[in-house]
Amino acid sequence: MRIFLTGATGFIGSRVVPELLVAGHEVLGLTRSEAGERALVAAGVEPYRGTLEDPDGLRAGAQKADAVIHTAFDHDFSHFVANCEKDRRVVTAIGSALRGSDRPFLVTSGVNIGSAGPGQPALESIFSTSHPIPRIATEEAANALLEAGVDVRIVRLPQVHDPVKQGLVTPFIDTAREKGFVGYVGEGHNRWAAAPVGDVARLYVLALERGRRGARYHAVAEEGVAMREIAETVGAGLDLPVRSIPAEEAPAYFGWMTAFAGLDMTASSAWTRGELGWQPTGPGLIEDLRAMNYAAPAAAA
Q: Of 7, 119, 151, 216, which has fewest CB within 10 angstroms of its CB?
């Protein structure tokens, strides 16, 4: 198949590219820059210039493909709500190009949207409309497309990691550098689900080739890693003290991350593994954090 891949030069999309090519697919990769074009050509991908701010251009890219995998997202979390609404518009625009066809559209979301309640792992079968995280806008757009007959499949992500980047843990590390100590909220018992980026990339291809319309897949290798363990590992890497922070003091330390810092974001992938035959094989989050080069400038992460 010819796949239109948004975020083709990004952290996850750049790992999806070789998985698609090895599986025999052609890739039309979205990029916003000349440097991105050169990188995609070198990787064996046909570049397509466009941005998330131009939904019409993305719609045109989708019209050129047999399927779409949407991994691009504006990760400026200081404008998280606005960026989630931007993603709603992008998903809607791409999906409009696929109406009336059986071309698959893989949409990226977050595992927390499958939350079953405090202390329970998120499940693929749940769409939690009451969850406070605004990424729900993405799945609302996807659901509207499903009702319109589009073959939408959702891949929900946890903290995706390697020894350089680790989802929300990366800005968590940056905050610790800035503050001079590593903080966690309360007892630090809240947990975050995680998965290595290579395993996540393989799941996208499995969801494309073996998935089905309307299904939600959880790219979860570890159901939950305790924030205190994450903080202690980061503290050892940065050679900084580790401290508990009362919930009322969290905003002064975490800033925009406060909404996530004390949140329990565990998730199961049991159904996904059984449905797609996906078995994660990569390192765990703590292993990657221990392998990280903490002497590198924060910007390199």
A: 119
With a cut of 90, say whether residue 187 has pLDDT above it. Answer: yes
Q: Which amino acid appears at position 221 of this protein? A: A
Are the C-beta atoms of 146 and 95 separated by less than 8 Å?
no
Which pLDDT score is estimated for 299?
Answer: 44
Count of residues for the chain? 301
Joined together, the tokens standing for residue 166 give 């680790």
Q: In whole angstroms, how far apart are CA 67 and each of 54, 76, 98, 151?
A: 19, 27, 9, 10
Cα separation of 48 and 58, whole Å? 9
Pairing mode, strands 159-161 and 182-185: unpaired
Judged by DSSP in three states, 296 sits in: coil
Burial of 117 (0-12, 13-18, 19+ CB in 10 A): exposed
Q: Residue 59 is which amino acid?
A: R
Interatomic CA distance for residues 119 and 284, integer angstroms: 21
Residue pair 90/269 in contact by the 8 Å Cβ criterion: no
* Tokens at 17, concatenated: 């590219």
Name residue 4's beta-bridge partners.
Answer: 28, 68
Instruction: Please say if the pLDDT value at position 173 is more than 90.
Output: yes
Q: In the Cβ-directed half-sphere of 254, how many Cα atoms lie within 13 Å?
A: 24
Cβ proximity of 23 and 60 under 8 Å: no
Report yes or no: 72 and 6 within 8 Å, Cβ to Cβ: yes
Contacts of 40 (CB under 8 A, 6+ apart): 8, 9, 17, 29, 31, 46, 47
> What is the reported pLDDT for 92?
98
